[in-house]
C-alpha cells in the first residue's frame, strides 16, 4: 500500500505506447457521464412548466449538481494522488445512475435537486481520476489524449438535448429512466478501465524508481500559484459565459424568435455538437505549437462573435453560436494540460481543481444569470455576458515555452 501513492503522484515516470483501447473506453464513459448530465439541461423546459419554476429555480438546479461536483472534485483528486482508487470510477457512474432514476420519478422540485446532487457526486468522482488515466494512457501525447477524453464528454453533452427532443419531450419525464441502460454500459467500460489502471499501478510499483526528470520543477511555487490563478480567471470567463449561453439557449430562442421547444432543442444540439468538434483542436495543436497560443486564441478569439450574437437574427444566431462553440471549446484541454505540466506530481489535484472550478463557475453562472433573467430578460442577460470572453486578454500574462523550461 505504501508504494502505491508515489506511483499515482508521478504519472510521467514511465513512457509507454498510447493505450488506444483505454483512451477509447475512458472517452466513451465520459460521453455517457456527460450525456446523462446534459439530460438535466434538456429537461429544463419540462420542469419549468410542470413544477412552475422561475428562471432562478432553473438556475438552482444547475447550481446544485455543478456546485456538488465543484466542491468534491479537488478533494477527490487530492485523495487519489495519495492513494489511488482504480475502481472508484464505476462507483461514481453508479451514483449518476441513481440520480438519473430519481430524476425520472421526481414528484417535486426538491426531489429534482436531490437527483441533481447525486449526478454531481458521480461527476466529482469521475473527472479527476479519468483525466489522470487519460494522461497515463497518452504515451506522452498529453494534449491529444485530453482532447480525445474531452471529445467524449462534449459529444455526450451534445447528444443529450437531441435524445431529449426525440424521446423525453414526446414521452414525458419518466422516459428519462430508459437512459439507465447507457449508465450500465458506462459502468462496464469503467470496470475495464479500472482493471487496466490497477495493472498499470502494479507494473510501475514493481519497476525501479526513475530519477526525477531534469528541469521538472520549472518555476518557483509563487510563480506556479500566480499562473494557476491566471488560468482560473480564464476558466471563469469561459464557463460563466457558457453557463448563460447553454442553460438558457432554448429559452432565448423561444422568447426572442418564437421557435418551438423541439426546434430550440435541435439548435442547442447544434451548438453543443460544434463544441464537441472544437474539442479535438486544442490538445493536438497545443502539442505542436504550445498551450499559450491555443488558450489565447480560443477565448479571446470568440469575443467579436459573442459581442454580435445578441443583435443577430435567428439564422445568424445559429451560425454565431456554432462558431463560438467550436472555437471556445478548444480552450479547456490546453488549459488543463498547461496546469498539469506545472504540477506533474499532483495530476489528480490539478485535474480536480480545474474540473471542479469549471463546474462551480458553470453552476454559479446559471444561478446568477437566472436571477438576472427573472428581473430583466433573457435577451438582456445575453447582452451582459457577451463581454466575458474579453477576459481572454489575461492569457498574455502566462509564461511562454522558454520560461517553462527554465
UniProtKB/TrEMBL annotation:
Residue span(s) of domain Major facilitator superfamily (MFS) profile: 22-404
Keyword rRNA-binding attributed: no
Keywords recorded for this protein, A-Z: Membrane, Transmembrane, Transmembrane helix
PROSITE patterns membership: MFS
InterPro entries: MFS (IPR011701), MFS_dom (IPR020846), MFS_trans_sf (IPR036259)
Membrane-spanning intervals of the chain: 51-72, 84-103, 109-127, 148-169, 175-193, 224-244, 264-282, 294-312, 318-338, 350-373, 379-398
Pfam families the UniProt entry points to: MFS_1 (PF07690)
Protein name: Fosmidomycin resistance protein
